[in-house]
């Protein structure tokens, strides 16, 4: 395996569809309200186009931010609005919870602190195997078992 070749995984992104569904419910109430009854077809087309474009933009951004990459630099994942890279050398612990959830513990270079990154992934088994393999290849040893977070920090 080449530790520099990127390997991509996807997080579950359909949980982020809930705001779109809520927006659709509120939109239905507005469509049925007296305020919208006098609108012409042109106004409805413009409102529908803007709403459709907004939903498509939201869906594209959600898909884009669901990308998780393991490459030569480390784990690259979207945290909030920014894409962050966590080097393999900062990895302290990996735990798979259930079939899809993976929790990683990283050293953020703050004394007595550590950071958890939890991802719900498609192919979580493959992700954990690839992450641990890349850690071993880049660090020259396997990830040590740590009993508690106090020892990890």
Describe the structure using short key phrases.
153 residues, alpha+beta, 2 domains, four-stranded antiparallel beta sheet, three-stranded antiparallel beta sheet, elongated, disordered C terminus
Overall number of strands: 7
CATH architecture label of the largest domain: Roll
Question: Mean pLDDT, rounded to whole units?
Answer: 86
Question: What is the top-level CATH class of the largest domain?
Answer: Mainly Beta
Following the backbone from N to C, one meets helices and strands in this order, namely EHHEEEEEEHH
The best one-word shape is elongated
Strand order of the largest sheet: 1-2-3-4
- Quote the distance from N terminus to C terminus: 30 Å
User: Rounded to an integer, what's the Rg over CA atoms?
Assistant: 22 Å
Class of secondary structure makeup? alpha+beta
Helix content: 25-40%
Low-confidence runs: 148-153
Tell me briefly what this model is.
The protein is an alpha+beta fold.
What does this structure look like?
- A hairpin with an 8-residue loop joins strand 6 and strand 7.
- The C terminus is likely disordered.
- This protein has four helices and seven strands; from the N terminus they run E-H-H-E-E-E-E-E-E-H-H.
- 39% of the residues lie in helices and 24% in strands.
- The protein is α+β, with helices and mostly antiparallel strands.
Blueprint of the fold:
Layout: E1 7-10, H1 18-32, H2 41-64, E2 67-70, E3 75-79, E4 82-86, E5 91-97, E6 101-106, E7 115-120, H3 124-139, H4 149-152
Antiparallel strand pairs: 1-2, 2-3, 3-4, 5-6, 6-7
